[in-house]
Amino acid sequence: MTFKDERRSMVQAQLERRGIKDGLVLDAMGKVPRHEFVPPESAGIAYADGPLPIGCGQTISQPYMVAIMTEALCMKGGEKILEIGTGSGYQAAVLAEIAGQVYSIERHATLANRADCILKELGYSNVHITAGDGSLGLEDEAPFDGIIVTAGAPSVPESLKWQLKEGGRLVIPVGGRFMQALLRITKRGEFYDQEDLLGCVFVPLVGAEGWDG
Ligand code: SAH
């Protein structure tokens, strides 16, 4: 099977069959070469149904979780999106297929540099990566149509809520260090709606509005 075939069967078996319906998300994940974002020795299992190690003790999320989180942002195309936790850069590439501009922050400079190189090589000129603590968001570029946090937080960071546009959505795993609930927070005027989407397991968000390092 070629990587393209593996990707097609990932989209069908892991995403469509489990209820992912958003055509923009399915198309994006059918395009992004996930095998380019994992360490070379894992390329053969890049499309498997689970997370994979990417170095620095971090992981690239399971394809289904990437799809659920992207779908939860309800993008229509052209949005300005902030991602916290670049990791491999894969989620950023999926977002970049749909959004207008994607800003992504990664705490580990090694991972940030590697993701930046891969994304540039693949031609994703609408992804902008910064190394640093993303728990405070990216004030200079705020507000955002959507913010996605791919690491687990002890509580919803206030800075991220403030950086949402009216009607904007924040998708974030919140809970304990080893298990969280995936939340979607939507800004409605002065208020924030909160929905609990599903249980999940993410590496910790480490930073000023996250866990201690
Ligand atoms: N979205 C990634 C998966 C990331 S794993 C992908 O598609 O591959 C979570 C990442 O969040 C890790 O790389 C971790 O280093 C990073 N992280 C944790 N706390 C952070 C913080 N405060 N700011 C930025 N990145 C953080």
Describe the model:
- The protein has a 7-stranded mixed beta sheet with strand order 5-4-3-6-7-8-9. A two-stranded antiparallel sheet has the order 1-2.
- It is α/β, with parallel strands linked by helices.
- It contains 6 helices and 9 strands.
- Helices cover 28% and strands 28% of the residues.
- The mean pLDDT is 98.
- The structure holds S-adenosyl-L-homocysteine.
- S-adenosyl-L-homocysteine binds at residues 58-61, 84-85, 87-88, 90-91, 105-108, 111, 133-135, 150-151, 203, 205-207, 210.
Relevant terms:
two-stranded antiparallel ribbon; 213 residues; seven-stranded mixed beta sheet; Rossmann fold; globular; single chain; binds S-adenosyl-L-homocysteine
Q: In this structure, how is the largest beta sheet organized? A: 7 strands, mixed
Structure summary, number of beta strands: 9
Quickly name the level 1 CATH class. Answer: Alpha Beta
CA gyration radius, whole angstroms: 16 Å
Please identify, by name, the CATH architecture.
3-Layer(aba) Sandwich
Domain module tally: 1
By CATH's scheme, which homologous superfamily applies? Vaccinia Virus protein VP39
What's the shape? Answer: globular
Report low-confidence residues grouped into runs of 5 or more.
none
